[in-house]
Amino acid sequence: MEAAIRAIAEPHRREILRLVWTAELAAGEIARHFDVTRPAISQHLRVLKEAGLVSERRNGTKRLYRTRPESIAELRAYLESYWDENLRLLKQAAEQEEQRGTRRDRRHKGD
Amino acid sequence: MEAAIRAIAEPHRREILRLVWTAELAAGEIARHFDVTRPAISQHLRVLKEAGLVSERRNGTKRLYRTRPESIAELRAYLESYWDENLRLLKQAAEQEEQRGTRRDRRHKGD
DNA sequence: TCGATATGTAAGTTGACACTTTCGTAAGTG
DNA sequence: CACTTACGAAAGTGTCAACTTACATATCGA
Lengths: 111, 111
Fold this sequence. Notes:
The longest helix of chain A has 34 residues, at 69-102. Chain A has helices at 2-7, 11-22, 27-31, 38-50, 69-102; strands at 25-26, 54-59, 62-67. Chain A is α+β, with helices and mostly antiparallel strands. The interface between A and B is medium-sized, with 26 and 27 residues. The first copy, chain A, binds a DNA duplex through residues 10, 12, 26-28, 31, 36-40, 42-47, 60-63.
């Protein structure tokens, strides 16, 4: 998970994921979409693979990559829970503040 | 946006955001939650601030930090659209594949 | 088997990054 | 006016990351 979040922090890798999201593509085809050299893309693919974000399948001399929807779903769920949990706490804190503010016996002074 | 996504890739920074999500905290108070030195946290706070993820307010000698819900919402929306757009394309691709597969005049061979 | 194609790996470079220690500075306190 | 508190900024360090060029490896076709 930690690896996944670090992996998508890199713009090239987000773009790679997008490319192989719908279609399985060979490493060379992927590399053709970028300005950097092919080995650079190869390394990005390795990072993505080690983070579990893409799968690799060999066919002859080619290596076909594809985004793994399951791992994307996991990453997404992780972030969702991060936002949601904190948002929940924020609301809760706001409500408590509200409570205290409306209680007569305790004036709320600005710090 | 790019800065924001890079900012949250760092675990300490995600934890800092969580700390000041509900309560405004001084830099020193934040630092007390971590093993690293106070200046290290100061630097993380600068990164977060430059990414727009936290606000800074001075009060006497203290500097109070708080997570900015709006920027979090933006980041969240960016990621949502990233997942959603691609998921949409994936479904669309699957449907087209389905179409092709059921048409009689065109056998689908596994490459 | 020879050559072309497709690709990962190795090694080196550069810059960013997370951290530390040291120092400067502004605001309260006696 | 010292002295303390609460910080950020500066400078130095080790590590990691993204990239390059050069090389090794595997497969396919003639």
